[in-house]
Amino acid sequence: MSRIGRKPVAVPAGLKVDVSGKKFAVEGSQGKLDWTFPEGIDVAFDDKARQVAISRKEDSRQLRALHGLTRSMIQNMVDGVNKGYEKKLEIVGVGYIGSITGKVLQLRVGFANEIQKPIPEGLKVTCPDQTHVVIKGPDKQKVGQFAAEVRAVRKPEPYKGKGIRYEGEVVRRKAGKAVTK
Fold it and tell me: What is the pTM of this model?
């Protein structure tokens, strides 16, 4: 039995949970999320205990893997609509800046052109100043994916440390060619 999969997911008060067929939906203060869970997995919501229980029909290798995955996805959805997720990025480099115009994140990070990344639906992106970007939303996967795409525009390089990095990320610096003497 999956250690992660057999733990029930506690649902805080104030969230609406709906399990119908193969679809799990949850709605809270941060928004609404739904997900279609895989065949062979059963999801049941106990309204009195405010818990979601996940079980599998058989013990095949694939269903054992999907059991834990389903529980983690449901836990992330419940946490997302309750509190939300947030990623912070830092832009490091002389003349490197970021700004928001409408539904587009504009980045000037050392290329000849300004990079424009359209902001996905359901995410809230802000720039408290020109060197920081904050990405918020209820969907953990969307928040992480967009943050990774923005970081991939100009990854931090190891010689000067310039680029876009997660807040608190440590970039290992290399010594330049002057060290060889």
Answer: 0.90
